[in-house]
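Appendix C reproduces, verbatim, an entry submitted by the partner laboratory led by Prof. M.T., so that reviewers can inspect both the input and the predicted structure.
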Amino acid sequence: QVQLQESGPGLVKPSQTLSLTCTVSGVPVVTIHYYWSWIRQAPGKGLEWMGAIAYSGTTYYSPSLKSRTSISRDTAKNTFTLQLRSVTPEDTAVYYCARRHWVATGLYGTSWNDLADLDEYDYWGQGTQVTISS
């Protein structure tokens, strides 16, 4: 059974770096054609896809967050991690990790747009609240 679980601090000060880890069980993160994403939902707003790391280790980011976001993985621990730099109170949200399957069929491979369709994600973590406040 596939399970995802987010972990990390619930409170981060403005200008600092938010760091969250998603622990995956039931399937190796290197399993071919699976992509592992971070998604968030700010109060009163919709879900926002932030970025993903592929089974190959390639990363993809939302253009609006690319300058502040890094996603990495630890294949030995079967985890992947989000780092969001220079946070502000607008980054207060519930953060989710999630998985989808994707096979690129076009000439140009996979782009961030291909991974941002949230309806295609089949497994999600329960979400973790992160508040940005001094």
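The mean pLDDT is 96. Additional entries are available on request from the coordinating office.
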